Each structure stands twice: as C-alpha cells, then as structure tokens.
Amino acid sequence: MGFFSAGPSAGLVIRAHEVELLAMQGLKVSARVRVPLGGPEKQELIAAIRQAVAEAHLADARLAVAIPTKDVLVRFFTLPMLPKAEWEGAVQFEARRYVPFKPENLVWDYHVLESKDKKKLHVVFTAIQRAAFQQFLSALTEAGVEPTSIEPGSLSLARLAIGKKERTSNPNEYICLVDMEPGQAHLVIARGGVPYLTRDIALPEDAHASLSASPQGGAGLESVDPRAQRLLSELRVSMDFFTRENPSAIIPTVLLFGDDALIGAWQAWLSDQLRCVVELGSGLLKPLVAGQELPLMFAATLGLLQRHRGDRSAAALDFLKRSTIKPAERARAAQGRAALKHLLEQFLTTESFAAVSIAVIALISAWAFFAQQDAEGERALAQKRRSRPDVGFGLAALEQQALTPLMQQASEQARVLAALVDQRSGVAAKLDVLARLLPDGVWLTGVAFEDRPDPTGRGQSTLRVSGACYLDDPGRQDEVIRNFESRVKSQAAFGSAGVEKIHDQVERRNQQEYTYRTFELNAKAERRL
Length: 529
Description:
Nucleotidyltransferase, domain 5, Alpha-Beta Plaits, five-stranded mixed beta sheet, 29% strand, flat
C-alpha cells in the first residue's frame, strides 16, 4: 500500500461507550488504546480522551478524530451535471429536502462524484447539529487534543472498502460493512470508500443464548442469540431497501468488524441466512498493518488514518474545516487590514485632506439643494391629495343601521376566503409528519392527496396511502400495520383513517423467497390536512 507515508500519525474514534486511539509509524502500530466511558456526561468523555492520550505516550496530541454515527446525518442524492463553481450552492439547496434542520444550525460537508456518463453528480451529504459539534470540539480542547480533522465514523469505516480491489470493476457492486460494539452495531453500505447508506442498530442488552449456541446449518431461530437475530433482521431490511431504491445495485458481500469472539460466532450463520458471502474484515486490515494483526475493533480508527496518510482516492468529509476559518484565510484577512491601514495613512496627508474638505463642502451644498426640491415636491403632493375626489362610496355619510348589513356581508366573504386559504396550506408539513409515524419494517409505496372545497369553502380532504410491511415474523405484520393505522388516527389533522385493503405479496431476491404485505389507508377530514 504505497499511499502510506513514513511519518507518524494518530487517530481518535469516539464511540457511544468508549474511545479508541491508534498511533502508527509508517505501517507499524506504535500504540493502540481503548478506554470505556464512565457515562454520557461531557466530563466523562474528557477524562477518557485524556487517559487514552496518556496511555499512548504521544509526544504530539494532534489527532484526526471520528465522532459517533448516532449524532451524524448522512444522505445520498443526485444532481444534474453542473460547473464545479456551482456545486456548493446546488448541494446546499438540494439538501434542504433531506435535512429536517435549518442550515444555519448545522455544520455540514459534502463529497461529489461524477457519473460514468457525465450526466449526473452523485452527492454524499453529511451534517451534524452545530450545538452537538461544539460539545465534541469543546471536550477535545479541554482534554488537550488539537484535532486536525473531524469526520463521521461511518466515513472512517467506509474507507476500508477502497482496499477491496475486486469491487472496483463493477460500478453497480457495493459492499456492506458492519461494526459491532457493546449494545449496538453500525451498518454502512459503501463503494470506493464513500458511504451511501448508514444505519445504527440497537441490540438487545440481555442475550438469552450463549455465543456457542449460535446455530449452524439448520438449527432453529429460537436457539439464536437475540442480538444476532436483530442484526440479521436489520441487515435484510437495509440491503433490500438500498437495492429497491437503486435497482441496478448488488451487494454480494458483508464484512464484519468489532468484537472478534462475537462476530466470529455469528459469521457462518449470517452467511447461511442471508445467502451471500459474510466474512470477517481481517482481510482488509492485514495489508494496512505490518508486524502484527490489528484487532477488528480498531477497523474504523485505521480507516480514519488512511486519509491522513496520503490516500488520494479517499473521500474527504471534514466538519472541522467547515466550522473554522482556515489559517490561509486569516493571513489574507490580516494582509487586507494592513493594506487598508497603509492606504489611510497615505490618504490623510495635507494635500489629500484639503481635497477631501472641498469634496465634503460640495456634497453638503448638493444635499441642501436636493433637500429643498424634495420639500417642494412633498408640499405639491399633499395639495393634490387634498383636492382628489372622495372614493369612499359615501360610507361616511351613512347611518349605523345602513352599515350593519354591509359589514355582515363583508365578514362572510372574508370567512369564505380564509377557509379557502386554510384548506390549501400545510399539506407538505403533514406529509412530513406521516413519514415520521412509520414503524420499523413499514415503508410507503404511494401517496395521493385530494382537496375539493364545497361552495362554502369547507374542504373535503382525502389522503390515500399505499404501503408495505416486511418482518422476520410474518404473523406480526398485521399487528404492525394496525399500529401504523392507530398512529395516523392519533394525529388530529388527519381526521378519520382506516386500513381498507391488505394483500400478501411474494417475491424472490438473492435466491430467497419471502412474503410481505401491502396495504391501503384512507384518511378523510373536513379540515385542512
């Protein structure tokens, strides 16, 4: 791997329950440290970072940093081909469709890839709320660390896919990477070191079966560690969703990282259940480390270091550069201030002062002249206003008894107009609420909205939703669909709602047949949706 430089480098990965620090000299590991967090508080994070730096015996606390995936949003979308100078504005505008926060409240970055046919731009957009980012930055500073970059942990893991050379030949072939840690797993579907889909998976805390009880071959699901069952379910849902959204995509391989004993016990069983290749990620790490085998728990940290060791093909998504002014920009600003000071010193000479005085006198004279003209114009306008005819339809001369029916008629017309406006607003906001009501395992396949006001302005609003549900336990699909129906009914804005049709659908994907259910839900209301 020629992209590694000979100099030292170090990276820090902040996880939900621990921090990891990896220091390397060329291809050799000089230090690797894992420190558990004592709790979610900021002071616990500061203490863990300080301990990791101390145990690594680093002479320089300048570190590349990756932050927890649960705090970071990653979205993939496409744009038409644009000049590079227009990329940032177009990305920021398009990202508003996918990000439920105001841009000024975010720290964000993006990576652009041109499509093979040069007709589209493929954009990976990532963001973190500014307040959360400042918390991480403050903790690093108080721990004595100077970050050289701060990126999402999903990108650090995705960079390892660059080493999978066979993946580069087929532009439709992606790889699924899973990073296991206590209580949760992180899933990334990537290609060429770029994350296209990321997902955090919460695992059951109490595993009722031992690791040695993981089934091989035809053993029943009832004997499987419930954490493995949950991981299998989320892998299926995520991979099916990605291939459904990208019909030409294929995901032939799943790579496992994390606790070696845990993932080693599940590897063969997951491969049998998914009907695809499931491997430990050791093969990706070995070419990147010399002299010893690096534990799979440090995979994300090793991926973090690849960008900072000269890998030109790696994607760069750096929150730090987006949140601060670069040193070069500060230098240019200082040069500008010095030039302005010099200009003022040259300007304020005796000759210049006399010229400025004459110019000021001329400006004052011109202002006085035009001010006088403005005053004359205002007086003429006031005279014309006083002489214009009365256009009040004689209302001022009418008695109160004659004005009452006119006021009632105007109020009724205003009520009808207000109702019409009310019936035609807020649809997009309510559809956003609808998407947030979806339970796990349910997705929408179609949405139709219709609003036909009657002559009084009251709307007859109808929302028709088509969707589907897939779960490992088919017997729970009806229950989950009815749960979604109840969630919709609980929203007053949707009025009455009910599931009208449920059908079983059978599909075959990756040599495996599975059944899911489709449904239709109608919501009607005599108010705006």
